[in-house]
Predict the structure.
Amino acid sequence: MDAIWHWFRVLYDTTGINLPIFYDAFDRRRFVNGLWMTLALSVISIIASVAIGVVGAWLQGSRLRMTRRVVNGYIQFFRNTPPLVQIYFFYFGIGSLLSTTGPTGHPVPLVSNVAWAIISLSFFAGAFNVEIFRAGVEAVPKTTIEAAESLGFSRLRTYLLIVLPLAFRISLPALNNNLVNLVKTTTLAYAIAVPELLYVTSQIWSDNLNVPEMMNVLLLVYFVLVGALVLAMDRWERAIRVPGFGA
Amino acid sequence: MIKFSNIVVAGAALALLGATAAHADTLADIKSKGTLVVGTKADYRPFGYLDPSGKIIGFEPDLAADLAKRLGVKLELVAVVASNRIQFLQQGKIDLMIATASDTPDRRKIIDFAEPNYYGSGTNVMALKSAHLKSWADLKGKKVCLIQGSFYNKELQEKYGIEGVAFPGTAEALAALKNGNCVGFAYDDTAIIGQLQTPEWSAYEMPLDSILFQPWGIGVKQGETALRDFVGKATIDWHKTGEIIKLEKKWGIKPTKWAEEMHDKYK
Amino acid sequence: MNAEATTTPRPLVSVRDVHKSFGHVEVLKGVSMDVQKGEAICIIGPSGSGKSTLLRCINGLVPINSGTIRVRDFEVQNLKTDHEKIALRKEVSMVFQQYNLFPHKTALDNVMMAPVHVLRENRDEVRTRALALLKKVGLAAKADAYPGELSGGQQQRVAIARALAMRPEVMLFDEITAALDPETIKDVLATVRELANEGMTCMLVTHEMRFAREVASTVYFTDGGVIVESGPPAQLFDRPAKERTRAFLSQVL
């Protein structure tokens, strides 16, 4: 391993291509931690935003007008404002209201910057997921739902066992796009100092003045990361494909 | 330290060069027109800021006033900012620049700095008094707000083991400090001093010894040897008589080791 | 008292003066009928005469405007909550024109789903019963096939097995052969005939007149939201009393 790290130092000395994330232990650790943070942000936000989408699409079909209004308001709010502004709003706006006083008289925030990033990213992508799932739900034939109803399924059970699995398959291509977008949007957590990939990379290029090299590394890492997600989603889409249903 | 002595040597060499190659003599012009025009900051409390009547006051205007007094001329202060202060000097809009400007080799390629340096800034932290910080070691493993891209970020994390939380700008970092997202905000100590003088931050302090010192220089247009040497001599006087230390006290600036060392060196 | 009870037992399904409107259009204008346990009845009539709507009302899928519908002890018009309706639907199963199988589940899973999730019965027992039902409708070999892999007739037979898996008291068949190819209709009708012969209470809306004549104890002819005429098949098909019945039969027979 050390030989590989050393090779990058030689690369720098001989060609001027400076990649301290390989030969400098401090920068390497920062970079790896940043990569993990990006992965954690992505995975948790994906799961949470899909959950929001599922619940939101269910509530949108509610018989109560108030519930439908709240869901629509949520969608409008998060779809019509920039995600960066949302992150700032949560962290500086809401975050300043949500603190207790510590034993030494310090304000102690109840929600960390990482948690705020996850919350705002999940709500942001979740708003789109609600719309995506709703389109899927609406594409499920009414007669299929009626059949479930006549078999004695409750509304919730019909949604969970029949509507959702079908809507999911219909929504998957649109969901793919939104989740890819979500992974790319995690870079905005940079603004509230969440040490994810873009943040650590910019720290590294500020310290080493190797902006071009790190820009390339950053681009490549995201390309691979998003590529892996797309590949996984494609495989999944194929795995749950049902003969004679959907495209 | 090596860098600093290099600068001194380079300065001395330039001084010799300048003595033989002086043509324009701003110093003589100042005396004949009876006015010294100095560019200072007007937005950097307490080094240069506006009093309620709109007059520029502060640490640096006081130094400018002393220079005018020594020359027996009137003083005219011009407000400058970081992005235009060197241009103003080159264009002759100001005779001298006393505007919290770090004395760097890059800048020495385009303007001259008087020797020795009159003051300087270091890196310190702004934290709640109730946090009871005593030394940089207390910050090990703690969250400290930073500005993205600051030169000291890496050293603070690598050498002092802080957990940096870096924001795009000062306002965001200060907001995060206030919300308790970090125990302290590491920043230029002279800027922290100004911040602490506003009532909003009265519960905060700058508890540590500054590190990573950057000397400030009084700038003159390149080749103005006579003016530069006059300012240099005055600067030595300021250090010798303890004028700098007195001004620190007057403007509520925490006494710096550097000012004390310069006083010891020249007395 | 006793003698009377044995001669006219309480009907399993009792429909009394039911009115139903969709917006301004009244599709049921006072329909009444009784179905005894073990009886098979057929409802015939032109499209839009309210036949399908009547079945949906009995299943509680569509609320009625006035009148009463009673299935065993359930007063259908009084069932308000999901919970109450589910209790009714355990007694009344329905098979649809478009089969409406769940496309993401195999034939076996389609049959098993409701008993497992609605009746909360033991999965292994349900599986045994579901396989037996698939065998009964002649599709034991297709247990693991998805609906998309089955012909229309096969899908409809799975739908019948699915409805039977709930062990209902009454089976409602809503034009179940209308969407099928002629060659697959035979198998589906054979399945229904077998059920009727076994004593399952069946209510069929159908266009298959020959089949209605064969399995039904009573045939109802509906037109314009009312029952025009009803009676045993021999009477209704061979000696219709009303002109409208005659006109309809002359078109379809």
Summary: The first helix of chain B runs from residue 2 to 20. Chain B touches chain A through 26 residues (CB under 8 Å). Residues 122-213 of chain B form a domain with the D-Maltodextrin-Binding Protein; domain 2 fold (CATH 3.40.190.10). Confidence is low (pLDDT under 50) at residues 1-5, 13-22 of chain B.
